[in-house]
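User: quick one
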Amino acid sequence: MTAVREIGSRGRSAARAARPAFDGRRARFIALCLLPGVVFVAVFTYYPMIRGGVIAFQRYNLFDLTATPFAGLENFRAVLADDRFWTALGNTGIWVFASLTFQFVLGFGLALLLRRHFRGRGLYQAWVFFPWAMSGFLIGLLWRWMFNGEFGVVNDLLIKAGLVDEPIGFLSSPGWAMTSIIVANVWYGVTFFAIMIIAALQSVPRELYEAADVDGASRVKQFVHVTLPAIRTTLVLIVLLRIIWILNFPDLIYSMTGGGPAGSTHIATTYLIEQVQNGDYGKAGAVGVFVLGLLLSFSVFYLNATRFEKARD
Amino acid sequence: MHRPTSLIARTAKAVVLGIWLLITVFPLYWILVTSLKPTSEIFAVPLRYLPGSPTLDHYRELFSFSSFGTYLVNSLIVSLVSGVVVTVIGVLGGYALARFHFPGRGALMLAYLVTQMIPLFIALGPLYLMMSGLELLNRLSGLMLVYVAMLVPFSTIIMRGFYERIPTALEEAAMVDGCSRLTAMVRVVVPVMLPGIAATFIFGSVQCWNELFLAIAFIDSEETKTIPVAMNSFITQYDIDWGPMAAATVVSIIPTLVLFSFARRYIVEGLTSGAVKG
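Assistant: Done. Structure below.
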């Protein structure tokens, strides 16, 4: 009976849309559905995150918890006075920009090649997409071994190809180490872009291309005037998400170089983790808040610059 | 889609795709080959691209000299249990978000989305203090609690996306037939969504299987180490015993490889249906 009544109320959808029926039974059901998730996220995600933000303004060292006084901006000052932090910040820029650019270009290319169905495409994708299911930690190890200065296969291949005469100390020389972690990250991340862009490409209505064909537009013209505008919104969004994600992705660096040699591959996040491992939660919190502020301002700037809202219309 | 492609274009495409496949697969091949070489061959120049005398010694070493079997079981428990819990929570929460308009719905969606963007590492220190206060350090249950919380937003948003593709008429018909909403959801809607549910479960489990930093922060005892923690403790700053390490890498890839091959299609679909976390 109650079910029937509910269906009946659904029928009056105009009234519902204006002021949703919100009887106790329905509210209880909604609460029942949402409660477990909300509790988990509130207790184990939001609470510690906010706490982390507060700790940034406290003197909070794990090895001396006798007093955790309010310290104002002391932690921020300590972080900003640390040369290693500035190096890490600069590295973060290089790491994000280079990884993103190569992942995007190669991923886009791969998506275009995989756009149309061909025999064995499913199997091909299964192999090519697989790195995405691996952990950054393992990928770091994989490449750490391949870039090994003495027994690394990369050196061996380069020497065989006649490109270098001597093995390169990829992970032991500061200049090469950054390049090496970026290569590994590109290898890993191309797939993500490919997946997302393929999906976007497949959502472009065929009629648009047919019309362009009738008009005699060339492939390149179709790409610029049909494909790109149609998937622009998706591109803007996945680039933003990707930037955030690459920035928050210390796993690969952690196992590949540990931030070394001499801090040359530390990014903000690995630097933060180092502070946590040193037990200095105050300083770690300050780095976190700083990075978060940076991310938020960047996101706002980026969405504005790409006129994202407008693009949606 | 249109216009026939020339033979040259097709060949060029095949070559490029072939090269990319090689680049993708080679590192995996290389770690496998390394794990099968005797130590003397691993550290021999010139390098051998095929093992001269393949051996399972490193795998044996892994399981007899370290408790890799225990770590493996721990990782399986943590991943599967967290995966199940996260999926159930997502199935419930996604339904509420997809089917009802209630006050605070938008705010909740936003709150969930924000967790996907804020670096979790800010929470690392406070989480450690919490876990220690609740006496959950070195316990698999503690790790699972945090993993579930970490994955709830993703699973809920993904499931919401799946529900929205399924017509409301489906459960309405069941409710006309006298089912309660919950029964209608469980008996009628959920079966239709099994592929999406499977994808959410597999994605969640794989994330837990791979997670490193929370695990190394909370787990330190031999009995409760998960695979990433154990592998991390194999690394000392300048020295890695590459034979067993390669074997450990191969072992820890296998479960994800199996799951991934089952769910690849659904994961790709799910990822593109709205919520995204690389």
